[in-house]
Specification:
mainly alpha, 71% helix, 0% strand
C-alpha cells in the first residue's frame, strides 16, 4: 500500500470531514479512495465511449447500453 499526504484548503477539508461523518466512510482516506475508484471508472467509461464512436458501429444508446459500458469499465 502507498501512503500519500495531501494538503487541502480549509473549505475542502471541512467538506471531506462532513462527507465522512454523514456517509458510510470510516475515514478521510476511505473517502478519497472511493473518489479515486469512481474517477477510474469514469475514465474507463469515457475511453469505451470514444472507442465505440471510433468503431463506426451504431446502436441504441439506452440505459442497457450504458449499463454494459459500466460493466466493462469495472472489469
Amino acid at each position: 500500500m502507498v501512503t500519500m499526504s495531501i494538503s487541502l484548503p480549509d473549505e475542502l477539508g471541512a467538506f471531506v470531514d462532513e462527507r465522512v461523518s454523514s456517509e458510510r466512510y470510516s475515514s478521510s482516506s476511505e473517502y478519497v479512495c472511493d473518489l479515486i475508484r469512481r474517477d477510474r471508472v469514469r475514465v474507463h467509461l469515457r475511453e469505451a465511449a470514444l472507442e465505440g464512436m471510433r468503431s463506426g458501429e451504431s446502436g441504441d444508446m439506452d440505459a442497457a447500453f450504458f449499463e454494459r459500458l459500466r460493466s466493462r469499465a469495472v472489469r
